Amino acid sequence: MVRVKVPLDATRTGRDAAALERGLRQLIVGQEEAVQQIVNLYQMHLAGMNSPDRPVGSFLFLGPTGSGKTRIVEATAQSLLGNPNSVIKIDCAEFQHSHEIAKLLGSPPGYLGHRETHPLLSQEVLNQYHSDKVKLSFVLFDEIEKASDALWNLLLGILDKATLTLGDNRRVDFSRTMVFLTSNLGANQMSSILRPNMGFTAAEVCQSTDAGVLTEDMSGKIERAGVEAARRRFTPEFMNRLDRIVVFHPLGQAELRKILDIELHLLQQRVFDSVGPHYFVFTASAQAKEHLLEQGTDLKYGARHLRRAIDRLLVQPLSNLIATDQLHSGDVVQVDYSPDLKQLAFLREAEGMPVQAMAEMAGVSLMPPPTAVSSATAESSRAGTARSSRRA
What we know:
It is a single chain. The protein is α/β, with parallel strands linked by helices. It folds into two domains: about 15-250, P-loop containing nucleotide triphosphate hydrolases (Rossmann fold, 3-Layer(aba) Sandwich), CATH 3.40.50; about 255-370, Helicase, Ruva Protein, domain 3, CATH 1.10.8.60. About 45% of the residues lie in helices and about 15% in strands. It has 15 helices and ten strands. The chain has helices at about 15-25, 30-45, 70-80, 100-105, 125, 150-160, 185-195, 200-205, 215-235, 235-240, 255-275, 285-295, 305-325, 355-360, 370-390; strands at about 55-60, 85-90, 135-140, 165, 170-175, 175-185, 245, 280-285, 330-340, 345-350. Strands 2-3-6-1-7 form a five-stranded parallel β-sheet, with helices on both faces. A three-stranded mixed β-sheet has the order 8-9-10. A hairpin with a 4-residue loop joins strand 9 (about 330-340) and strand 10 (about 345-350). Helix 12 packs across helix 13 (about 305-325). The longest helix has 22 residues, at about 370-390.
């Protein structure tokens, strides 16, 4: 044995955890603590230091609507599994009565529907999105405060022992699962803290360049309001079983501006992911973005209000242009703001551009053509039939 004194840096993260952090920061704006907490627990899982008889991580996300609580769960699944829809979502508004828990577990013996009701939390459901590299599941209990006490009691076993017994006595293992709970508890108190300084209307936001910037004192008050509201609603034994409790801050104009760029990029990707023949590129001017931001800024409703403004002011007109054959595949469309019309204006700047060139221009990825996918599927089917014939 050689005695050495080598300083170690315990703040560094591994390559896979760093990749997750980069992916989250590309999709999530203004919620640094939530990103860091997810990365930290994922790093513990990769290092094998998390408890083997508990979930990989359990989170309670508190905060107002539109602050990104659900979005960060989808972004985590997208970064690790490549599919934001791989999150198993449980809408707790559907479980306000204790008898509705049977939808999660399946009906027990002696009850109507036994062995006919497919449980929502079976092992097959948890494992369906596992990949060769990442064998993790993501379960989201959305708006947990709306659920009955029976669901909270059910969660106690999942959070503490990472196991769940179904109605047919099968056991489900949650030891390779990240469990997320979201809640709007404390949102009203947060609103009252913000109202004297920031207000909630778009006009007030536009009047001040500092709108949306929280002081350290205000940030602390918001966090305390969220945590205290959760403690009043949930039992101490429930709160003690959670790994992390994170309060999401309301999004200000600076964050919404970044979210606007992300949403426009996702919209462009949606164009290239569509099955139809209309592949086109749109570019939004600074004036067009300001108009979308002005119409979509309401701190009370967060990013959801901005997405509705994009759908109403941009997606709907583009859909009209496609439906009326004014927009064709290969077109490049400039989106600007017309002060006279007080609305967005659309101008075709180029046409006949190759699809690959448009994708490179927009910085998006291309999906395989439908014909190529169907051909590959048919070829795979023929190969499987041939192998079956040879075995026969």
